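ugh ok so i messed up the first submission bc i forgot one of the chains. this is the corrected input, ALL of the components this time, i swear. 846 residues overall. if the numbers dont match what u have on ur side tell me asap before i send this to the collaborators (the ones from the other lab, u know who)
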Amino acid sequence: MLAYYLQLGLRSLRRNPMLTALMVMAIGFGVSASMITYSVFRAVSGNPIPDKSSRLFVPQIDSWGPGRNEKGDPPGALNYVDAMALTRAHQASRMTLIYQVGLSTLPRDADSVPIATEGYAVTADFFTMFDASFLYGSGWSTADDDSRAADIVLSDGFNQRMFGGANSVGRKITLSGHDYRVVGVTRHWDPSPRFYVAWMGAEFDNPPDYYLLLNRALDLQIDNDGRNSCRGAITYKNWGEFLQSNCVWLMPWVELDTSSDVARYRSFLESYSADQQRAGRFGWAPNVRLPDVMQWQEVQHSVPPESRISLIVAMSFFAICLVNTIGLLLAKFMRRAGEIGVRRALGATRHEIYAQYLVEAAAVGLAGGLLGLLLTAVGMSGVGLLFEPEIARLAHLDVSLIGLTLVAAVFATIAAAFYPAWRAAQVQPAWQLKSN
Amino acid sequence: MHIQPILVALRRHKAGTVLIALQIALTLAIVCNALFIIHERVAHISEPSGVDEADLFVIANQWGAQYSTQETVERIQQDIATLRQLPSVQEASAANSYPMRGVGWDNFITMQPDQRAPTSDAAYFTGDENFLRTLGVKLIAGRDFRPEEVQNMGLRQNVATPVAIITKAMADKLFPKGEALGKTFYAMTSTPITVIGIVDVLHRGDVSTWSAPYAGESMVVPIRLAVPSGLFYIVRAKSGQLAAAMREAPKALYAENRMRIIDPKDGLLSFAQVRHRAFERDRGMAILMGIICVVLLAITAAGIVGLTSFWVGQRRRQIGVRRALGATHRDILNYFMTENLLISLGGLAIGVLLAFGLNLWLVTRFTLAMLPLTYVLGGVVILLLLGQGAVFAPALRASRVPPIEATRPA
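and heres the new structure output, hopefully the right one now
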């Protein structure tokens, strides 16, 4: 029966090619605009680490105080003094600190000019906390952190550039005049958005070349290449004084496995702040936060507002296209009132008429979906025109998006056809036969 | 034209009427807001930089060797001398950032050293005595830096400069009652900074929305940034010789000292490229909204044509009867045009509410500005014309229905 309806539907669609083309185009444009903007939104708003996102937290301490903090919220990073205190306290099952470094190196051929590299200075737990997987070797241990070893982990891309992709574990690499020992090479691993550096707005920047041992980087006075935020008068005259300043620049993360761990860590942060208040370092009551990954992305506005606005506008556009389709389907179905009357008179039930017209609408939806798919594919190549390159490169047409495009088009059109098909099914056979 | 019969007829086409009205309402809401977003983005894109854009380019110079602060200072001075010697180069300056770089330094500004809530959050440029001249910024009061005023700043070495040059926008914010020259302020410093010069316009380094309340508020301090990571050389080519200067400058720098990094991808940018990169998001947004507006209007128009054609087809007999009873071509044409006008007006009335509703939501969620009434009025006019234009062809066809149709069965 369905095949027969489909046949009827296709025949009817051929009868009013203009009206059909209009509907197919409306659905095609509507669905493709939604899909293109959705593909970008999906890429920037996803959960970068679904298995652990509810167990990773940013400890925030208000080291600036009322009037100087972020409109009542503590700063999004730690100063050196607090960062070191939290690390030494060992209150979380795992903890890491991160800051960005930019160093120079000489590529393999000796007479070349130096090249710029970028990486993160991190502590040992970074790799286990964020589920880094290794091609060669591994991360370093907490003992290495304590012994301030000159260890480095390379990304696969950088290992390719510097060592031609060979197993470089144990080899030496020189960055800005200092030697480091390669202990591991990560497999291609780059959570997107790169949530752990959201505070400095580097969620979609180029992936890091390497991960340096933080204590070593501090010993070498390797400057923070990322965001740095200070309050009050800046008075430091050298690196040592800078470390003691109120400038926040170290991005902390802790791993807490159970909700009681979370509660315990929160009260630890409060008691730490209270201690600082008692010691006279903070002149205000404890003000702490402990957001997890998804909350942190929300707070840091990781999703560019442009992406959200364009998705909303595109979906409204799709909605208008559907309103348009309802009107056109109504016109199309009601034009065949006579035909419906004949079919009803010959014994077709209302349900059958209803089903027939929904099938016809589904055919329109499918055609619209196919056009939408084509337009989406074309639009994908133009995404670079609409979003900046770092974000545009994240958007791609994959199987799930293809499926979603077709499903969205067909279901939306069927939904739009409910009312017109119902009206068609209400046609009084006697009325139509009489007027004919 | 009698409106009463049209209204009665419309009541018999409730669904179609409501659908067209709804479509017009939604279209108005989206088009007004999209046009307004386009306007805001274009306004952002065309913000003045205050610099001589046609002849400027920027070199992001990173050091490839480890120099002490003193060595770095010497390297910078040597580099500037090398750049200035080039035949195609007019002027060169060493700085920490430049207008419209996309990101930048900013310092809180206070009028008193112990003031907690800052008066402003100014873009903070460190430049040498050539900075203003190289950029081609217009000094409207006071004087430029003297070479002996320029201090060197090494790694995490905070330098308190006693003087600064600020923009007019910043002067107006800090000293609303007038004359800023010779007055003092604090820029996260414990010692006061005296305003020695005021420039007309110098765009901030960042182009972000957070800094909108401080738009155009920039300050320049006489500091040479001699930190290990590197700095920017702002170079002004002789008029019309930008391409040649951009070719020669990196070559000359590498020839003088190989241990440096000028990134092949974005180490060398003309100011046109700087501007292009800074407003990528805004341009993309404007293009997307433009495309959506055009397609949306086209689809709405097509929808009106489709539904009206259907109505005309359905009412051929009635039209025939009216024609037979003496209605002219014009009467029939007017009937359909008026019918569309009534539906459009109904839709637009709802659309105006929806437009402001959508805007209000965007305002609270995305710090968009309030939708000006002119945009809504403009949208109303566009959609009225669109509706009348779309209905014209089917209405014309209706007017050509011959009176004989009255005698034919429907």
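quick check: The mean pLDDT of chain A is 91. that seems consistent at least. Chain A touches chain B through 66 residues (CB under 8 Å).
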